[in-house]
Amino acid sequence: MGEETVTGLVVRHLRELRGALDQAGFETTLDHPHGATPYLRATNRHAPVMSETIRCEHHIVDGDAYWFFYSWGQPICPAADKVLAAREISRVIGNRAARLRTDP
Known about the structure:
Elements: H1 6-23, E1 26-31, E2 39-44, E3 51-58, E4 66-69, E5 75-78, H2 82-93, H3 96-100
Antiparallel strand pairs: 1-2, 2-3, 3-4, 4-5
């Protein structure tokens, strides 16, 4: 068997992040447009305007390591840590605890 392609590795990291975000209660969509970089769209189910597009690529300061990045280019964390990535993304688009609160 051959080695995993770069695109295959990126898609695998995004799929694993998708699983962590789905478990955290977010709606996710993985898109891999032909000829374009794959990305993951995460949306707060209870506030659909709160969403973020996540990319996975090499981080310039971390050699060959893959990292997740927000749509505006800020690094999130190494792609190896899906739980941390899901936690950081939830800070940006809302989390379950925040959406379950109601005003009296």
